[in-house]
Amino acid sequence: MRPAVSDLFSKTAEELKQTFDKKFFQRAKFIPSAKKTIAIFCALKDFIYQYPLESGRETLPVGLESLACRLEEQIKNSLCFLCQEKADCARCEQNARQITQDFILALPQIQRLVISDVNAAYEGDPAAISPVEPLLCYPGVTAVTLQRMAHFLHARGVRLIPRIVTEYAHSLTGIDIHPGASIGPAFFIDHGTGVVIGETCVIGANVKLYQGVTLGAKSFPLDPNGNPVKGIKRHPNIEDDVIIYAETTVLGNITIGRGSVIGANKWITQDVPPHTKLN
């Protein structure tokens, strides 16, 4: 005899629940919503880009306040889920409110950085007819804009949400930038597909990367249990005014000196002096 449909679903649901321990389920309600987070940051990107708003500029503060309230909820969920004390604690709520306020106050500075990126893209690409073209069309500008917002939260100890944002950008643009990477002004990723920038990268001003460039880690030190050691500097430092052409791989905690030009398809694991040209 075939089992009743209700029994079938009940059995499957019970087995699925066994995947996670009880502690996970106690905290699961605090997992930030990826769908809501992506919607918030897409709207914040529009505020930074200053798209024409049909309802008029006088509604800007109201719309921004609404986004801030929604963002605070997701930040609180993230903090509570990872809290070492207990879920839904008052400290997490206070921290979420302060981080959200600091983030909103930082948006004009983030916008200035984005404008510098847009100008770098326009000035660095002879095919661009105006700065509006990279703003609206270039995947590199989109990926870096979202990363700059995510980086602010990552630098203040928020986890999960920054990765949701940058992995959304990765899926959208094919450009993978960890929210921990520190990126200076006027950063331009031309074409963009396949670019990877690791967590501890430090990138200076006026840097230009082409498609397929990897700024990655050479190796992962292991702890006594054989697990990768976390929280150490393991990615490259790219100084000001550097250009790295397509499909070049730069690995490890090394420095590409100021003003250097690295040709395509290079494998680099040692420091490069300033003003070097590798053809």
From TrEMBL:
<dbReference type="InterPro" id="IPR042122">
    <property type="entry name" value="Ser_AcTrfase_N_sf"/>
</dbReference>
<keyword id="KW-0012">Acyltransferase</keyword>
<dbReference type="InterPro" id="IPR010493">
    <property type="entry name" value="Ser_AcTrfase_N"/>
</dbReference>
<dbReference type="InterPro" id="IPR001451">
    <property type="entry name" value="Hexapep"/>
</dbReference>
<comment type="pathway">
    <text>Amino-acid biosynthesis; L-cysteine biosynthesis; L-cysteine from L-serine: step 1/2.</text>
</comment>
<keyword id="KW-0808">Transferase</keyword>
<dbReference type="GO" id="GO:0006535">
    <property type="term" value="P:cysteine biosynthetic process from serine"/>
</dbReference>
<dbReference type="Pfam" id="PF14602">
    <property type="entry name" value="Hexapep_2"/>
</dbReference>
<dbReference type="Pfam" id="PF00132">
    <property type="entry name" value="Hexapep"/>
</dbReference>
<protein>
    <recommendedName>
        <fullName>Serine acetyltransferase</fullName>
        <ecNumber>2.3.1.30</ecNumber>
    </recommendedName>
</protein>
<comment type="similarity">
    <text>Belongs to the transferase hexapeptide repeat family.</text>
</comment>
<dbReference type="InterPro" id="IPR011004">
    <property type="entry name" value="Trimer_LpxA-like_sf"/>
</dbReference>
<dbReference type="InterPro" id="IPR053376">
    <property type="entry name" value="Serine_acetyltransferase"/>
</dbReference>
<dbReference type="GO" id="GO:0009001">
    <property type="term" value="F:serine O-acetyltransferase activity"/>
</dbReference>
<feature type="domain" description="Serine acetyltransferase N-terminal">
    <location>
        <begin position="74"/>
        <end position="144"/>
    </location>
</feature>
<dbReference type="Pfam" id="PF06426">
    <property type="entry name" value="SATase_N"/>
</dbReference>
<dbReference type="InterPro" id="IPR045304">
    <property type="entry name" value="LbH_SAT"/>
</dbReference>
<keyword id="KW-0028">Amino-acid biosynthesis</keyword>
<dbReference type="GO" id="GO:0005737">
    <property type="term" value="C:cytoplasm"/>
</dbReference>
